[in-house]
Amino acid sequence: MDATHLDSTASLEAAALEYAGRGWRVFPCYEPARIPSGALICTCPKGERCGNTGKHPHTANGVKDATTDAAIIREWWRQWPTANVAIATGGSSGVDVVDADAKADGVTMLLKLEAERGALPDTVTARTSGGGCHVYFRHAGMVSRAGSIAPGIDTRGDGGYVIAPPSLHRTGERYAWVEGLGPHEMPLAEAPEWIRNAAQPKRSRSVPALPANTVNAWQPPLHDAVTEAQLRKRLRATSDSKHAATVERMLAGEALFPSGHHDDNLWAFISYLRFKCPEASDATLLRLLGPSVEAMACDDHDVREAARLLQRVNAEYAASRADSEQVASELSGRGGPRTSLTADSSSPGDHPGTDDWMAAPGYAIYDGQALGIFKFTDKGNLSTIASAPINITETGEDEHGTCYVTVRWLYGQRERVETVPRAKVSGSDILELAGRGAPLTSNNSKRVQDFLQAQEQHSHAILPRVRIFTQSGWSHDLRSFVVGRQVIGEPGRVIMPGDAAFLDALKPAGSADEHLRLMLAVRDKGPIAEMAWAAGFAAPLLRLLAMRSMCLSVWGPSGAGKSAVQAITTSVWGRPSGLKISGDVSSAALQGELARHRDLPTWVDDTQLTREYMTSLLAYLVGTETSGARATQTGELRTRKTWRSLAFISGEKPLLQVGGAAGAKNRTLEVCAQPLGDVALASLTHQGLEKHHGHAGPLFILELMARYTNTDRLEKLREQHRQLAFKMATETAEQARYAALLVLADVLARTLVCGEEESRARAAALDAGQAFCAAVKKESRETQATADAAYDFIMGFVAANWLGFSQSGAFKRPGMVLDEKDDTGRSIVAIFHTTMQEIAREGRFDTRQVLTELVMKGLALKDEGHLTRKVSVEGKRVRAYCVVLDDARVEMGRTPGPARETRTVEGKP
Question: Where is the sequence biased in composition, kind Polar residues (predicted)?
Answer without folding.
Answer: 339-348
